[in-house]
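**Fold tokens**
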Amino acid sequence: MSIHSRAIEPISARSPLNRLRKLFPAETLVAALFIAPSLFGLFVFFIRPTLQGFYLSLTDSDLLTHANFIGLANYRTLLADKQFVSSLLITVRYVLLNIPLQTVLALALAVLLVRLTDSMVLRGLVLLPWLIPIVIATLVWISILSSIGPVDGFLKLLRLPQVCFMCQEYIIPSIAWINIWRHTGYNALLFFAGLQTIPKELYEAAAIDGAGEWRTFQSITLPLLRPVTVFILVTSFAGSFQVYDSVAVSAVPVGGPGGATRVIYWYILDLAFNRFKMGYATTVAVALFLISVALAVVQLWYFRANTSDLG
């Protein structure tokens, strides 16, 4: 290499163009180009409306006239709102009836799929309820659980007392069951995919050590399914707190018998579009958002979602 080239090389290496190439390699620029449409959609349809919603919660907007900034007045009202507390408790009851049973059934179904069959047809049938729109599924189950439906006829056949599934006492458990029936198969396939990633050598080693089925399940299967379990729980809890479709279809009159189905989403829509209290409705929505985020963070922390037992 000549003296001139040695003198020029450090200067060219320090040029702005080479610095940019080091900071942003060609692969990075190509990746940015591909994700740009998604980032644009995320900003337009999620981040921007979310920020607008936070601002709207600080106003007295009625959806029709100019909104005046009132600071934290809506949040002070929220702290003393008995209807908000009642709606939240109804929603929590639905969530607690829905998620634990749904998750346990999905895990059991996934284990059965692994142990008993390799049929793609059966796996497709397991997913079928999830492919049915929630409104149609709710209407079908309402007819099944009605006083003239097959469930009532079966209870009569067994000489058991009749149950009014759409009445005040049982309507939330009935709606929870509809959502359990619809989503269990989908979650089962997620668990099934997680089971496929567990090395078979671990089960063979456990069998050699004399571990039984239940001990193996506790010590190997459950810990190694933790990432899938966390994903299912976080998404299921967030989705369950947003329940509305099945409630709206099954609850006649509005809010259901005795207001038994006035879930938090129903309350938000009632405030916004029936009472025209858009600012306060947005405050309730922000509170629901913060509750959902807090629950997600607690679940991620409790299940140590940032670690892996396969490491």
Notes: The CA atoms of residues 58 and 72 lie 6 Å apart. Confidence is low (pLDDT under 50) at residues 5-9. The longest helix spans residues 82-116.
